[in-house]
Amino acid sequence: MIQLKFIEVIVFYEIPQVFVATDIFGANYLCLLYPHDDESCYKYLAVRISEKRLNLFKGQIIDLLSIYKNPEDNSYFDVAVRDANDIIATPLEAINIQPSMLPDEGFFCNYDAIDNEELISGSLQNGKVMSCIAFSDIDNSHNIDVNVLTNALDRYQAMIRNCHIKRFGKQHASEANMRACALKAASFDVLFILNETFDLFGEASRISSTLQKIDEIFAIGSTDGLKEKFEDLQGHTLSSMRSFLQVLETNNLSFKHKWVTSILEKSISGSTISLNAISRVYDYLNAHTELEEVITEFIGYFASGTVLSNGKWVFIYDKKKITGTTDESNILNGITLGEQHQYKIKCIEYQNTNNISTKLKTTYKLIECTEI
């Protein structure tokens, strides 16, 4: 007999249906409830399972039946559970396993390190929208490079913020600010508090609709559908989206995200975004980088000290300074420096991520210059 220690519940309905336990040597056992006549305990069919295979099950990559039909060490155990501190496993011959003890084919795990109740409870306590995002590699492993995680989170935030500004204006930009408040080990679920408060009806309609807008993009399977969806998101939203997806594509990461839409109805929205969906959207954005262009105009003057010879310039407008470059060598010919000489300039505005600090930096490329 082997004494087991309870670790976590995977499936719960009235009582644990599937749970994980461990022995004194640290081996994991996946335990599946089966019907029996002994009323003094609950009985489970168990197999030893590696961390990698358990993660594949949690990540919905393999089903439960495949685990029980092919145990990694060809061993089965009959587990009796009398209470949380009395879990005993006894070796069981495969010939003694009845069909009723095995799971149905096609049963996949619906595992969440952060469950819906936790999100709703947190939203009620804070009075603000709570959301979470989780990244997973192809093995659903529990490790990720810290720089990759930092870049992915930073660019996800930039994508949400730019989309929110595009849809509702800069006056509502702060609603999309995300403050991380928890990090769970399984698939690196990161819990956020967003900055929009709920209205009298228990809803946060603006930020919820922004997250939904992003989510819908990954459900589109055709280029025509993507073209139509992107028409009202052109500019920084798409450039930050491409930047976010670049991190995921490079590191073979998928993600899932969800958020509270109503605290009165206790409703949650969100989905799991596959590697195929990420690649489809990323490839489209790479082929249509012109959608990322943002044209801005300024009226002001070229500052003293502007370097005109190599296309670099410094421009002052409304007592604010911007810097940039130009690809057109003649555009700065004849420019006179100083506040007495006013110009109207037209630029392409870019948002770039610094790979060291991960902060977004706005840069400008001069395309037109007219003296006023």
Task: Tell me the helix content.
Answer: 25-40%
Structural class: alpha+beta
Biggest β-sheet description: 6 strands, antiparallel, barrel
Total of helices: 8
- Radius of gyration, CA atoms, in whole angstroms: 28 Å
Q: N-to-C terminal Cα separation, in Å?
A: 90 Å
How many distinct domains? Answer: 3
How much strand content do the residues show?
A: 35-45%
Order of helices and strands: EEEEHHEEHEHEEHHHEEHEEEEE
Biggest sheet strand order reads 1-2-3-4-5-6
Question: Could you report the average pLDDT, rounded to the nearest whole number?
Answer: 88
Spans with pLDDT under 50 lasting ≥5 residues?
none
Q: Give the beta-strand count.
A: 16
**Quaternary organisation of the protein chains:** single chain
- Note the overall shape: elongated
Describe the protein.
The protein is an alpha+beta fold and 372 residues long. It has 8 helices and 16 strands. The protein folds into 3 domains: 2-101, no CATH class; 116-292, no CATH class; 294-371, NigD-like N-terminal OB domain (OB fold (Dihydrolipoamide Acetyltransferase, E2P)). The strands form 3 sheets. It has a 6-stranded antiparallel β-barrel with strand order 1-2-3-4-5-6. The mean pLDDT is 88. Helix 4 (146-168) packs across helix 5, helix 4 (146-168) runs antiparallel to helix 7 and helix 7 (236-250) packs across helix 8.
